[in-house]
Structures are given as structure tokens and as C-alpha cells.
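Propose amino acids for all 184 sites.
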């Protein structure tokens, strides 16, 4: 663990929080104890010394808070496969990626098959209004965590490849009919 500046941590806390991490007494609520002739002040009443600060308890609480925080909101993007019409949520496929084109526009790019949302790409963004809020994020996580049927996935990949080859074949035939040589 890197060196921790306890004094800076303590300075960032208000009096109530500081009292919470006082190692003096776990039952201490920051109030003065004893009678008027013999007041007993807890260490956190006038500020703690670094030795009186329970660093382990503080770090443990901070770690717990970090684990329970709601993740940052990110845009939910849906992408449609133009050939099959299948729609999926960006990020649920390990081959999903976003890129910027030369004009600074965001484009989707599938790393597996090299297709994207460009002018001649096989994918397009689908407009979806943000009606779900938190539920929309929840759906993304459930889709991400859903088990994949590998056999069906492999067959789909083969079928997709066949369709891509058929489309390319049709493009070449059209070019040949027009008398243009295909250089790709």
C-alpha cells in the first residue's frame, strides 16, 4: 500500500466524522463526560492527533463505500446488423468497439468481422429513447452476464460469413456486368 497522508485525510473530515474514527472509545459520541468540576474531553473534541485516528476503520469504510456505489451512467447504444436485422446492445459482444472517423463522428466497429457503421458498413445505430433509466442499465448488465450457447454462436458466425461472401459475390458480378474490374 502506498504511503497514506493521515493528516490530509483527517483534515477532509468534519467533526462528526472525525469523532467516528476516534480510537479513544467506541462508545464515545463526542460529548464531554464527567461533572462540571472534572470534565473529561474525548480526543476528538479539539481535533485528533494522528495516533488517535483509527486509520484501518476509516479505510475499511471507504472501501465498502466504493464497492456499493452505483456505476457511472453511460449511454446505452443499440446496433442493428443490416443483413439479419439483429439488434444488440453495445458492449455485450466482446468484439464491439467505438471509433472516430476523420470528421470526428462516432462509429461502431466489429473487431471480429471488420464491419462497422460507416458508409458501406453492415451495421447501423438504432435510436432508443432513454425510458428505462436504471432499468436500462440493469438490462445491459443482464444481457452481458447471460450465458452464450457456443454451438449456436458458431453456427451464426458461419452463416454470417456465408452471407458476407454472397453479398461480395453479388457486388463482383454487378461490377463485371458493368465492365469494371474488381481490385479487392
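Proposal:
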Amino acid at each position: 500500500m502506498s504511503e497514506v497522508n493521515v493528516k490530509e485525510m483527517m483534515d477532509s473530515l468534519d467533526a462528526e466524522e472525525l469523532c467516528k474514527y476516534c480510537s479513544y472509545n467506541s462508545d464515545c459520541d463526542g460529548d464531554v463526560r464527567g461533572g462540571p468540576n472534572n470534565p473529561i474531553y474525548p480526543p476528538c473534541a479539539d481535533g485528533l492527533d494522528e495516533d488517535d485516528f483509527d486509520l484501518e476503520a476509516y479505510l475499511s469504510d471507504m472501501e465498502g463505500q466504493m464497492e456499493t456505489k452505483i456505476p457511472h451512467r453511460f449511454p446505452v447504444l443499440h446496433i442493428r446488423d443490416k443483413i439479419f436485422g439483429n439488434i444488440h446492445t453495445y458492449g455485450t459482444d466482446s468484439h464491439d468497439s467505438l471509433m472516430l472517423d476523420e470528421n470526428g463522428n462516432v462509429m461502431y466497429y466489429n473487431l471480429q468481422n471488420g464491419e462497422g457503421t460507416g458508409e458501406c458498413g453492415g451495421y447501423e445505430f438504432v435510436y432508443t429513447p432513454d425510458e428505462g433509466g436504471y432499468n436500462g442499465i440493469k438490462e445491459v448488465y443482464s444481457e452481458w452476464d447471460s450465458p452464450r450457447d457456443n454451438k449456436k454462436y458458431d453456427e451464426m458466425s458461419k452463416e454470417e460469413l456465408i452471407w458476407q461472401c454472397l453479398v461480395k459475390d453479388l457486388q463482383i458480378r454487378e461490377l463485371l456486368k458493368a465492365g469494371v474490374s474488381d481490385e479487392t
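The chain has three domains: 6-67, 78-126, 139-179. The first helix runs from residue 6 to 11.
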